[in-house]
Each structure stands twice: as C-alpha cells, then as structure tokens.
Amino acid sequence: MNMFEIIQTTLTDKNIQSAITSTIFIILLGFFCRKKGIFNDQIGKMLSKVVLTVALPAMAFTSFLMDIDQKTLSEGMNILIWGLLIYIILIFVSKPMYLKYKGDKQDTLRVLTIFGSTTFFGIPIVGAIYGPEGVLYASIFNIGYRIFLYSYGYIKMSGLKMEAKNIKEMFLNPIVIATFLGLFIWMFQGYLPQVAVAAADGTISNFGFLRIDQTAVWLYKPMTYLSGLASPLAWLSIGATLGAVNFKTAITDRTSLFYSVNKIVFVPIINIVILAILSLTGILPMSAVSLGVIVIMMATPTATVAAAYAISFDKDALLASNASLLSTITAVVMIPIWIVAINLISSTGIFG
User: Fold this and answer.
1) Structural domain of residue 97, as residue ranges?
2) By the 8 A CB rule, do 294 and 140 touch?
3) Which GO terms describe its biological process (predicted)?
C-alpha cells in the first residue's frame, strides 16, 4: 500500500473520521456557546472540574476492566518505562530549545513544553480513536507525567523544595487513585478471590471479584455512563475557554507561536524518532496502538497545572496564557495530521 492509499484509508476510516469531527465540532460548539453568552465565564472551569473529578477517573478505572494477557502486560510495562524516561529526556532536550531566552521566561517555556494537557485533552481523544485499550495505555503512560509534573514542574516554577501538599496532590488526585486501583485489578485479577459468572449461553467463567464489569454489572454500568461524559464535556470546556480569550493578543506573540510549534510538532517527533530506534533494536518494542497513544498524548497543548504554576509564582503569566491558547488551537489543527502520520509510520512495520 503506497502513501496516498494509506492517507485515503485513514481519512475514510469511519472511526477516525468520527473522532476528528467529534473533537472539532464539539470544541466549536463550546466556542459558539461562550461567544453567544449561552455559557457564562465560569462554565469552562465547572465543566473541567466535572471531567477531572468524575468522568476521567471513571474512564481510567473502567479501561482496566479487561482480561489480561502476556502481550498486553508487556506492552503496558514498556509504556510505563517510556512514560518515565521521556520526561527525563525532555528536561534535558528543552534546554537547548530555548537558549535565547533567559530567566523566568526560559523556565516557563521549558515547563510548558515538557508537560502537556495529557489528561484533559489527550485521553478523551485517545479514547475516541483507540477505545478502552488506548485509554488503558494512556492511563499507564500518565503515571510518569503525574510524578514529574508535581515534583520537577513545581520545583522549577516555584524555586522551592517539594512541599507536602504537592505530594498529597500527586497521590490523592481522583484520576491517580482510579488509575492505580484499576492497574492493580488488571495486573492481579488472576490472584484475587474468584467469582463464577454465567454467560448468556450458559457457560461458566471465573473472574476476580473486583472485575465489576463481570461480577457487579449494576455498579459497572453507571461508571460507563460517567466515563462517556469525559470527551464531550472536556471538548465543550476547551471551546468555552477559547471563546473567552483575546485571539489578537495571543496570535501576535511570536514566542507563543514558537512554543506551540515545539510543543505540538517537535515533541511528538522526538518521541517517534527515539521510539523507532528502541523498537528496531528490540530494547523497548512498541505496537502501532502504543505509538498512536503516545504521539497523541505528547501532541497536547499546555497543561492546566503548568500554566497555573506560571500564574501562581509570577513566572511570565501572560506568556503562559498566550501559549495555552495558541497551543490549543495548534493541537486541534494537528489532530488529523498526526493521525495520518501515525498510520503512515505504522505501515512501515517498525512498530508491531
């Protein structure tokens, strides 16, 4: 299959088409509602709180409620390792990216480049394209993100040592709790007390008692409805947020434009190049799905927490706000391009 056939197949795939159009249309709906006054100035924050405290934890947890096999377990562990390594790599790589900037501006640009909105922006898109398997891998990948965001990110922006409140935030965050609980159930389901469950055809299968998708469907079903809210509410919130900011000011900021290209284009390329080398050498093999998850997660705009650090510690807050806006617009535009690129790269056979 040549390049043009791959592009055509990708763009005519109904699942990919619906994921792209859903993302863009619902973001535009949120933007329109904010501009028309249907949404007030608090709606973006309110929606994001619902997503972060209820919908995304439910999505992360339910994604782990699946059978485990050696291939999936091995893939998950490779993603966990890469999810830790990439942030160490970006800490060093981001330095030469912004050598011409000094002081607070350089620190802010580096932290904003290292940490994207993987949870709020990335996971809903991953879920729309790759389903539960993609969300599972994305949740595992995000473990390293959380560790470095609340440690290195905080220390770099505040100039202070790590505080207890950040350690608490790191481990008591609803998404983190849901991720670790789901990861535990997924990995150790075979060692948990087993419950016999009868299928519709009368066959009996045994499942760990915490596999509520099989043992307590009455509890599992509400969680699937909550997880289904994550994507549309997140996209509405993004649109509402974009509708409340000054485009003219942001677009004329060359530093923010430079940052947006680095964050949405070069950071994913760095991941692709290194992962291709690691896969070809057999050091850290990745599947095509894993590559897609990682690229989408890394091609995300400014992380909300990273921008909040810049504002809280007076580290060029205006730059952080402009960068957040422009990188969000750039990310929305680049979604279809990256999906096509992922399929083209996957067709080379480098990733299994």
Assistant:
1) 3-261+299-334
2) no
3) transmembrane transport
